[in-house]
């Protein structure tokens, strides 16, 4: 009962992390324009993502344009494209493996030991996808912060942390938590099976003891 609830909790948390990873990959709010100029009235907001950049004017009109070339992006955004795509694929594979390895899933007639290996694989894939997602999110955040406090960088080129980065941290935490849940579940199952498979100690009964004594006395009488 507890194992089934643990599996369902891990699957739900992993599904939230997978959906969050897909959303972060497509969101344009990775880098947001910083309002640090002396002019308080700002008419437009600039969003820069992995695939496009958007300009929102006075909270009414928004225009987005896909990047013409990958080489036009900064090195952190170029690497983030590949890493986020890899993290999305890994999270999807981990989610599907977790579904197939669930205790109450009967899509395949596989033994419980094989399902345990599938659950362990899903947990490791969840942890790997969360780690892969953390790399680009932390890299872009570090670049934004360093450029923001760099006096050499022009004020118009300074950016702030966008909503996609915060969502990326939450999604990565959910993926790692789901992976740790599945790995702990497999560990507990291994201990349970090892205790269940241990052979009990058999003590000789009174009838067996008498039978042995009769055999020994009969063997001695043969020599007389």
From TrEMBL:
One of its GO terms (molecular function) is structural molecule activity. GO terms for cellular component: bicellular tight junction; plasma membrane. The chain crosses the membrane at residues 81-105, 117-145, 165-185. Keywords: Cell junction, Cell membrane, Membrane, Tight junction, Transmembrane, Transmembrane helix. It comes from the Eukaryota. Its main location: other. It is found in: Cell junction, Tight junction; Cell membrane. It is a multi-pass membrane protein. InterPro entries: Claudin, Claudin_CS, PMP22/EMP/MP20/Claudin. Claudins function as major constituents of the tight junction complexes that regulate the permeability of epithelia. This is Claudin. It comes from Oceanites oceanicus (Wilson's storm petrel). The lineage of its organism: Eukaryota, Metazoa, Chordata, Craniata, Vertebrata.
């Amino acid at each position: 009962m507890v194992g089934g609830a643990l599996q369902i909790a891990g699957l739900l948390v992993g599904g939230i992390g997978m959906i969050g990873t897909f959303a972060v990959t497509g969101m344009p709010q990775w880098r947001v324009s910083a309002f640090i100029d002396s002019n308080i009235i700002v008419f437009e907001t600039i969003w820069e993502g992995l695939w496009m950049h958007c300009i929102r004017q006075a909270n009414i009109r928004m225009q987005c344009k896909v990047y013409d070339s990958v080489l036009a992006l900064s090195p952190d955004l170029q690497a983030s494209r590949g890493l986020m795509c890899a993290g999305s694929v890994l999270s999807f594979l981990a989610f599907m493996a977790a579904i197939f390895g669930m205790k109450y899933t009967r899509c395949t007639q596989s033994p419980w030991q094989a399902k345990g290996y599938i659950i362990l694989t899903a947990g490791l894939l969840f942890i790997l996808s969360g780690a892969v997602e953390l790399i680009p999110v932390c890299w872009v955040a570090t670049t934004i912060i360093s450029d923001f406090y760099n006096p050499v960088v022009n004020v118009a080129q300074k950016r702030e942390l966008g909503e996609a980065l915060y969502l990326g941290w939450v999604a990565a935490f959910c993926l790692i938590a789901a992976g740790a849940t599945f790995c702990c579940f497999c560990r507990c199952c291994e201990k349970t099976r090892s205790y269940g498979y241990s052979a009990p100690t058999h003590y000789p009964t009174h009838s067996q003891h008498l039978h042995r004594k009769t055999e020994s006395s009969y063997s001695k009488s043969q020599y007389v």
